[in-house]
């Protein structure tokens, strides 16, 4: 089914080598639909993990997923959680049993002891304040911890005095007391998640807890939080640079997190069994609504603070979230464009040059490149037009220089901060700053780009073009209700309500007053506010009023939230309503940049103060710098002014951050640095200053500390400031530790010889915070991981309940998690340093981006290497070396790449590459799935045996470490598990009742529509949306298709049964009001939905496969299970094929004997074809499955039935081809029927029965061609059904006719040449006679006698040469002196290799059966043909000879009639020119024809349309043939009369069909005998065919009866053998080898009836010489040859 059943439970595959299985039932609740739901822990197992350990305890830190499941889902997936009655076993009752085991009296005594111990501990704690804690206090706490570990006593410890005790203990300066408090908390938190969360939450929510806790106490409590609470969701963020979050902010995040988890537990606990509550349903609903609102507000607050702590709000900058085009997330993305609007490329600059021309104005790229080369000057700004390696289209930079290299242009790019070489034609010249101008707004530019690229407005993905009805998804978002569109949705209103609750007292009351005034004065409490229907106009008014009342942090959240982007002033007017804040976000960096620029320029004026440049760069808001400097002047700080300024900076901290970041400016700003440090030093003394975000700009201090050019005075002031800051708040010492300040201070001490005041003390202080830094990182990881798990839980609830997600900033959180999925780290951002084996001073040439420079080694051969020390967590996407063939022996020949955890442990070989001499760029590594700290490239060998090597460049590309891989892994895991569990439950329903398959369409459509809407709402990133859609489709649709297409014990699958029902009621479904129409509509919707995603299976990238290690990084490709989309199509096509096969098999069984079998079969096939199009659309896979199903049904029947079917098709085609000659409407109807038949007959293509069909078609085609001649239709038919003829005999027959026509044209020329020769001889003879008469004057009688003698002598000489030659010459010259008009004679030369031999077995003797005027033509043709065969190259080949047959046709003139007759009929009619009556007996004796053939010819002649009568007499047994008297009966006197005998059709049930079956059985026996002799090794199919053909010629063969009945005698072709091989493969008697499919071997014994056989060629030792048969076609000019008498005679017309 969906997964696999392993050792204990049902496993669900989550990815390659990854499975999940249900482990434990955690809790139970009542769902929104009133049915019970159960939370199940699913353990995640990797390949090789074993879950059969003896212990039943599950480590909570193991990877697991908590999933709420219904009764049906548990029944289908979690068998061990079902009782004997099939019901779900509730949560474990072991705890209740233990509680019941304690006596109530004993329990009461223990509770009394606990209360007294709590009272004693409080008293002892008050007595020891300020002194060393006494031992009794520690003993009391130890006993309390022991009592706390007893779960039945948990309720006693919920006394508020316990929290007071723990608060006092945690606030104590003594370490032992704080440690004892931790032991008690651990004991209380060891029972369940609810108790643990409640205790820790109660502690964190104590009033002014942060004031009572110092640094150590807070760290102790945070350590308890990290250990006891936040380790339930282990998640690794290895390789991702997490921000430095101070302890104060971490503590706030922990409190928010605990509050959210507590509310979530309350929500789950509130949905218990209804009988356990005494409240009414209305009260329960109101309580749950209150909890949902409180949870949403708390979750929004947590997300808001977490986004600020992760600094995502600053990273997003001014631009909002990019809008993803509306397209199906389930369709695979095309290479060029998506199915919807192609997103317009956002260019970073919308400027153009006034002076320089764009590329579009040039006719070619070369012309433009020359223009850029001539016009570009150093210092000009340029823009990139195309993507080139790491430079993207739209990037801007400054042109530096050019050379003759490739590429030739060096530009300093702003996007990378470094120079990079590109080509001339890729650049657009912007010029100097005065040359540029703004052109259009961004929206107009993008609109123009889209319209220019597309030409017209593309439709949205909702629109379905009629030409591609099934090319777009059928899953569409639900249409919005018109009434709902006038109001905000509940999620939008709750997001707006979040900001209303953020307001202070007066502002909050003012906003509530606005709401009451617009809502008819209704009193608004929390319950009413939650369910309020907010009009859109009122919401817009609130969005206008809120920004002035919110602080800086809340305002930033408001401007980035969904409701403001949709309904705020910016969305309405298209302009930013409150730009000051967003502009201020970017100004700190801009001011620092401005300071850098000022440092580069020579100062022309002396500013009044060092802060003047900073003030000017920041704008009007920079005045606060001067005010702060004046307030902190040396004359004495004015405390009130400083505090006011600090409060202003707390609300808007951007100026403060700009002040700190000014330290990361060039060293020339010494005065600025000193002024800033003095200001910061004095600010630390104010307690209000500690609330500023110092940690966000601490990296600027570290940059100044690490810079080797920092002035000593500035460095000393910086160390003093950092020491003072870390002394006041040790949180910042932890931040410095995370930033690596220890190493930086050590290097500074080494440089300045230790003469830096307080530097060592600062280093020691930072070093002591190592464990705290580790704790902070762990807490940050756990909080972020816990939030991700809660977000995934909300997504799961959204899927299960179909209720909207009402959490504020939910989309913001997801947007930041999905951000950066396509960003790459390039160049030196991937590695920390590069080391080389020799010549380190030239190592920089590896990364200077100049292909003309190189690093050259110096050492022995094979000892050269390049070592890369990678940044933490960077996964190499591509590692490449640049080489040059011109380096000759310096060029590498073999390169090996190693990886390791350090430079001393490079033991893992990642790849080895052999270098071709023509290579220029060597790709060494691609798409690594593991992080290697050190990668070493070793040059093992050089070209031509060289010693040293030269490397032109080193390129390293790697994916940027972002949260997207981690979140994608978790999102795809949860999605896959949820939908695979659901697919299994739906499959179980279908297995129990097939009729539930009709509801699968609505179920699937609802699930897919929900995922589509979720992605459109919350996933703006296209890659994230496609990942979700792909996972959902694979997890839900693929298992369902697999299950509904799998046959049951009866051999019928559920979908197959449904399709059978559809086909049966198809005719009745034409009535739209019938039940059949509704049923068919549901079936069509289901099949359309299953196939609307096209299969797209791409080959996975090649990755290096290092040995496994515990230091695993996230495998970015581990979530995609390959082949699932294609398996869906494969299963569906297999099911459709089975349905078609059953339908056709039933039809064949019932109707194969019918006279109108073929038309009915064609109609049945057409209906199936229409049904396939209705169900699956015009997809080739299902049309192919339809043909395969029809072929499979035919192969199920015995050979004689299949032969009968093939004969019926051949007969039907023959009849329709002949019928199409009629013309008119009837002829067009025949052509239409022929076309339908040809479409159906293609099922024979590739089948074993195709040779039988070819046999019958060849026979009928031969009779048709010889009786009526060829036409264009013959070739058209063969072109369409050519694959049905494995021997291609019909095609060869047509080619032989073309050859005959060519021979006839050559024969015509030959006759003309011979006539010219005879006439020339006559002229010479006449000249000789004339000369002899003139020379001799003697008697006329003597000359005449001499001439006669000469002719006699010539005749004698001729006779002496041979009688046969004399006879041939006499016959050849027989018609030369015929005085009448010669008939037109055409000869058809037919080869027995392609024409059926049964048709040409009767030979014709022209000497006895044809008149003299015809014999001469035939004899001349024979001589011509023999001469045409006399080629030197063919002397060794057997000479072809002609043998005349009775086949052919003729046209005779009989009075005013033109009779179309056969050759036999022509001969018979011409005999009546000489005789009045002819007996059939004499005709048989003269011609040698068989009686059947003669009677077949006589029949039409003696019919009512014929010219003869048959008279029965006693003297003539067969009767006498006479010319019919014209007065006997009326008949047509003029025109054409068609008397050619009708086509004779064969019967497969007769002797010929049985003989064909015998031949196939004989071939089967030969194949099996040969394969048996070769055993299991088998035989190649080509060798098998050769051996079978050899055995057929030499070995046993059929009897004479079989030989005579076969179409081509006893011949056998390779196609016949291959058809038998197909038959045996289908029966399973012969099998193919899996690794070598061309090898065949014997599989199982089979019983084949062998006919009695004898030699094919008895008495002959070699093959017979090839024979060439021919027939004739006679034409004349219409002049009768008989004498002009009153009796009508026959003359050959054609």
Please give a handful of descriptors for the protein shown.
disordered N terminus; alpha+beta; 1694 residues; five-stranded antiparallel sheet; elongated; single chain; 35 strands
Structural write-up:
The chain is an alpha+beta fold. It is 50% helix and 11% strand. The protein is built from 59 helices and 35 strands. The strands form nine sheets. Strands 24, 25, 26, 30, 34 and 35 form a six-stranded mixed β-sheet that branches. β25 (1442-1454) and β26 form a beta hairpin. α23 (579-600) packs antiparallel against α24. The longest helix is centred in the last third of the chain and has 47 residues, at 1289-1335. The protein is elongated.
Q: Give the number of helices.
A: 59
**Range of strand content:** 5-15%
Bin the helical content.
40-55%
**Rounded mean pLDDT score:** 75
How far do the termini sit from each other? 74 Å
For the secondary structure, the number of strands is 35
Main beta-sheet annotation: 6 strands, mixed
- Radius of gyration, in angstroms, nearest whole number: 49 Å
Structural class by helix and strand composition? alpha+beta
Silhouette: elongated
Could you list the spans in which at least 5 consecutive residues all have pLDDT below 50?
Answer: 1-8, 51-60, 93-100, 273-277, 334-349, 438-483, 572-607, 824-828, 1097-1124, 1338-1370, 1432-1437, 1598-1609, ...
Summarize the structure.
The protein is of the alpha+beta class and 1694 residues long. It contains 59 helices and 35 strands.
Q: How are the secondary structure elements laid out?
A:
Layout: E1 4-5, E2 10-15, E3 18-30, E4 36-46, E5 64-70, H1 71-77, H2 94-101, H3 104-127, H4 135-148, H5 160-171, H6 175-188, H7 193-204, H8 209-212, H9 215-228, H10 247-270, H11 281-309, H12 312-315, E6 351-353, H13 365-375, E7 381-384, E8 396-402, E9 409-413, E10 419-422, E11 427-431, E12 436-438, H14 442-454, H15 482-485, H16 490-502, H17 505-518, H18 526-530, H19 536-545, H20 552-560, H21 562-567, H22 569-573, H23 579-600, H24 612-618, H25 623-631, H26 639-651, H27 654-661, H28 670-683, H29 698-706, H30 712-728, H31 730-738, H32 741-751, H33 759-768, H34 770-801, H35 810-817, E13 824-826, E14 831-836, E15 855-856, E16 864-870, E17 878-882, E18 892-900, E19 908-914, E20 921-926, E21 934-942, E22 950-951, E23 953-959, H36 964-992, H37 1000-1018, H38 1022-1044, H39 1054-1064, H40 1075-1091, H41 1124-1151, H42 1157-1176, H43 1180-1195, H44 1199-1219, H45 1224-1241, H46 1250-1268, H47 1272-1281, H48 1289-1335, H49 1340-1361, H50 1363-1372, E24 1384-1390, H51 1406-1409, H52 1412-1428, E25 1442-1454, E26 1457-1462, H53 1463-1471, E27 1477-1479, ...
